[in-house]
Predict the 3D structure of the following.
Amino acid sequence: MEKELVVVIDFGGQYNQLIARRVRECNVYCEIYSYKTDLAKIKAMNPKGIILTGGPSSCYEEGAATCSSELFEMGIPVLGLCYGAQLMAFVLGGKVERAAVREYGKTEVAVDTSSALFADVTPNTICWMSHFDYIAEMAPGFRAVASTANCPVAAAECKERNLYSIQFHPEVLHTTEGSKMLYNFVRTICGCCGDWRMDSFVEENVKAIKEKVGNGKVLCALSGGVDSSVAAVLLSKAIGSQLTCVFVDHGLLRKNEGDEVEAVFGPGGNYDLNFIRVNAQGRFYDKLQGVEEPEAKRKIIGEEFIRVFEEEAKKIGAVDFLVQGTIYPDVVESGLGGESAVIKSHHNVGGLPACVDFKEIIEPLRSLFKDEVRKVGLELGIPEHLVFRQPFPGPGLGIRIIGEVTAEKVKIVQDADAIYREEIANAGLDGSINQYFAALTNMRSVGVMGDERTYDYAIALRAVNTVDFMTAESAQIPWEVLQKVTSRIINEVSHVNRVLYDVTSKPPGTIEFE
Ligand code: XMP
């Protein structure tokens, strides 16, 4: 049976991935494509519905991102959002103009609940508006089904042709009943029954991997992070010991992390696979000796990782497949789907495939968002502490020690970080802060302890709340918790005499210190 699909056509809006995630929350599978994608290609995918995103342009300007009127004549339901709403009106013969004032922020909107789009929505509800242009005149055949004080056409429909448009952003949480509106579109108007479920994802993928791999050998670089762990367990479930996982301990992991990964995936653990742990701490510390510049450290760690992995791969010999934990945002952000510019290439471990003798890459999580990867992890029975792990950078503590990395400094930051994480958990805050860690500032200062002068390091504590890690706010940790962490770090970790809390948001700061 063919799977249901909704296509999101991206006009360069900032919320493209969010729209796709919200659709998937309605149990409908959905993919993002650039507005430049050939219409015949989209039609061939046989989507049940199409959503047009917002975008930065004005649709009446020369060279603006646009679409052909054929898009609206394929008999497929279309929902235009923000710029997409204006474009639909413009292309079909309405008028879009610049408004006298920009409408921005939470706004009260009156919706016509007789429209299928607003079924079960409160007649006066709150929406998130962000636009300069507005629909001054609707295209022929459309009627307005929502309005605000400043925007006469906050939503419009042409029911006969299954065309709908919304000027505001139902995908952002500030639009109180936005999820319901998107649900109404994909489930009622497009008629999707909701066949995108993580239990069936596991079942179908295990079957597909079995068929693809046959008797072949598969190699996986396991970091202990969420993505590579879920990919490895999915593979293990499909092909068992035909899978070999190589875990490189580069000596820049958090306290006891190497042993924890080994306990889950190693010989005494829960899964049927071959596990190889490479203890390469010394090699990494040697290479990092005397290196202070952050990008140089990243490069050394990345390159050394490849070298270690390559040596292990040589011992194993030729394999048929190499597993990568690529997820959907990586695909979109590397410019392969949608309209986004390349934002995070430095965050990916580059160059791995080139060092391994293999025939094909398997990316079992390529279509999933992070929250879906976590759901798959739970389906597979992976321990919760691994599934809900906070993000940890590839170069690890190497970029949480400012300046030169030494074994001694690694130990200091590991111990301080372990105390910090323990106390955050004790205070019940671990589920509500998106990322938090200790860093070693490399600054030494004068202190006094037991009547003696000290000259020791300062530890910086960082904790941020963020949705997408592109922007972040410093978390407001209760003073008592910070005091407890501080006193424990000073008492329990040698060579630390000062603890600082970083209140910088991103921007202007970044989340990591380097
Ligand atoms: P920044 O510091 O750029 O961090 O605000 C944003 C997110 O990315 C993580 N990060 C990295 N991850 N390699 C990685 O794999 C890196 O070099 C790297 N630098 C930052 C960071 O932990 C945060 O989640």
User: Anything to note?
Assistant: The chain has three domains: 5-189, 198-387, 400-501. Residues 341-349 have pLDDT under 50 and may be disordered. The chain is about 30% helix and 25% strand.
